[in-house]
């Protein structure tokens, strides 16, 4: 009965938190999947071994066609389900007993629900890959902790495979499962048997991966380089688990130092109390950061937050344990209440960015659909503060929307680094009988100017109306 109440509560709160994005449209990579399904009519996307995106989009298409509402509802349902699985895994762990155990599990689930730094996996349709992977990963942990050894482990492996077919963010799950099994069972022989099964499962997945893709990473990431050394990337990713993105690198560095000091202080207290299961749980969280460290997460915008989705599941298990292990009885409600308020504010700010991105994309599509004359777009935005707009799959989006690609010309895709250099709006400059639009577009003839729309950092405008 409690479980039914908890999952219902998580579902209602998820809907209330993310209600503003339910009116959003498709963006960037969303059109890549729709193009494969509707135009190319291909089998699930095997080039990157992530067929779950096409499968889930196809189910949504059967429900609502090209109306995006059901796609967003699906994202919210997956997120609410993951919140519930964080709660269930916390119940499975023998960290606390009785009512205290339920309070810990409920707190961990609520911390995850209001966690503000993984929204990319919720509010971006293609970002559902990370939330589906995390849901599969948490199901795997739950099954390994609650079912009889062999069947529980085999079912956990199956969930791991399904999650990997969504996103590789849970590639380290076997190590996490083994750590959680040690926390609950403290059985060396069981641990060795589980290790053998997971090693075999990992080798089979690796062989399949090499056969289909030719490497651990998808083709579009192979050959890409991350300049920062691994230690610095780890610090950045760990800091971003606790801090919102910011352009002010000085404040970010101060925040990172504060995070390290806070983690150190908490661990000293826990170490003195000899709460070994907590420390093992913390190791599991640090292991879960590996994919984000390998690929990198932005400290300036929310870009890449989807890589924090699965680690944040474990972080909230750790944070919930901290709330009940430390002598914070009088301050628990105050701390949790402050966390909820901050989470709501940050989630709402991120929602607004994605709503803005969606409206910007939809307005451009409306201009391109109207009339029969060619349309010229200047400064089609790549993103808006981490919310993707026209970064990828632009032509595929036109085709899916029934727009002739031959009558649409994009003069420039505006990046974030370019628009940050402009204070206020981007304004065309008329000189020498032609228009110049920052950063690099020259419109030489009036006949061309009559069909030009440019983005001024706030909205689309028609050039000739000047």
Q: How would you describe the shape?
A: globular
**Helix coverage percent:** 55-70%
Domains (count):
2
Mean pLDDT: 91
Unreliable segments of 5+ consecutive residues: none
Widest sheet: strand ordering: 4-1-8-9
Q: What is the N-to-C succession of helices and strands? A: HHHHHHHHHHHHHHHHEEEHEHEEEHEE
| Radius of gyration over C-alpha positions, nearest whole angstrom | 24 Å
The biggest beta sheet is recorded as: 4 strands, mixed
Q: What is the total tally of β strands?
A: 9
Termini distance? Answer: 64 Å
Q: Treating each run of at least 4 consecutive H or I residues as one helix, how many helices?
A: 19
Structural class: alpha/beta
Q: Report the portion of residues in β strands.
A: 5-15%
Topology:
Blueprint: H1 2-18, H2 30-40, H3 51-64, H4 69-92, H5 98-113, H6 120-123, H7 128-146, H8 149-164, H9 173-185, H10 188-212, H11 230-240, H12 249-272, H13 276-288, H14 290-295, H15 309-325, H16 332-369, E1 375-381, E2 383-384, E3 387-388, H17 394-400, E4 408-414, H18 416-419, E5 429-431, E6 434-437, E7 441-443, H19 446-449, E8 452-455, E9 460-462
Parallel strand pairs: 1-4, 1-8
Antiparallel strand pairs: 2-3, 5-6, 6-7, 8-9
